[in-house]
């Protein structure tokens, strides 16, 4: 298995928004989902995850509510707001433009 890669802040925000677009989750669940979907290539450390969640909450892109986790522990569940869905669409479009441009450069280099 290849070593996990570090995730840049803007990319982490996009990954969190995309993950929460599927369903509300607690922080640990978000990190696990990103790791699973990336086939273990991406690992989100708590030191990056929770500041990102708080930042997205301050921007009103996500909201948090207390609830019970699968093992009946109290946990904060995050969900996407309407503004967050709009931001996700913008960020996905930006990502497509950026990744296409980088691909073009790499193919010609």
Keywords:
single chain; 109 residues; alpha+beta; Arc Repressor Mutant, subunit A; three-stranded antiparallel β-sheet; 4 helices; 60% helix; 15% strand; globular
Protein model, in words:
A hairpin with a 5-residue loop joins strand 2 (62-68) and strand 3 (74-80). It is built from four helices and three strands; from the N terminus they run αβααββα. The chain has 109 residues and is α+β, with helices and mostly antiparallel strands. The protein has one domain: Arc Repressor Mutant, subunit A, CATH 1.10.10.10. It has helices spanning 9-22, 27-37, 46-58, 82-108; strands at residues 25-26, 62-68, 74-80. Helix 1 crosses helix 2 (27-37) and helix 1 packs across helix 3. A three-stranded antiparallel β-sheet has the order 1-3-2. The chain is globular, with a radius of gyration of 15 Å. The mean pLDDT is 92. The longest helix has 27 residues, at 82-108. Helices cover 60% and strands 15% of the residues.
């Amino acid at each position: 298995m290849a070593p996990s890669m570090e995730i840049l802040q803007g990319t982490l925000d996009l990954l969190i928004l995309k993950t929460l677009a599927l369903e509300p989750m607690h922080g640990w669940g978000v990190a696990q989902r990103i790791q699973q979907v990336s086939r273990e290539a991406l690992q989100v450390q708590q030191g990056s995850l929770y500041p990102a969640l708080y930042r997205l909450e301050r921007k009103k892109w996500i909201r948090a509510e207390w609830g019970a986790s699968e093992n009946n522990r109290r946990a904060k569940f995050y969900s996407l707001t309407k503004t967050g869905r709009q931001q996700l669409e913008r960020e996905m479009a930006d990502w497509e433009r950026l990744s296409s441009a980088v691909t073009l450069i790499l193919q010609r280099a």
